[in-house]
Amino acid sequence: MLGVDRVLSKALALSSTEKLQLIDNILASFYPINKGVDNEWKNEAEERISSYGQGSIPVLDESDVLSKYKK
Fold it and tell me: pLDDT tens digits for the chain (71 residues)?
């Protein structure tokens, strides 16, 4: 486990952004990205952002969203 401990020590010294990139890469090694699905999510996100910018979708604040789960 010495190798793992050494890698962990170096990983913990990284910036938050670098840690997130490392985590993303490690997870991707378990679950390779499906380019088709990834592209569909990208398109969906861009469409939602555009709709939000145009005011064509309702905007809910956190309390509105969470209230339906607090019943």
Answer: 679 999 999 999 999 999 999 999 999 899 887 889 989 999 999 999 999 999 998 888 899 889 888 86
43, two tokens = 């398109």
The three state secondary structure string of 2-43 is HHHHHHHHHHHCCCHHHHHHHHHHHHHHHCCCCHHHHHHHHH
Q: Identify whether the C-beta of residue 34 lies closer than 8 Å to the C-beta of residue 43.
A: no
Sign (positive or negative) of CA dihedral 27, 28, 32, 34:
positive
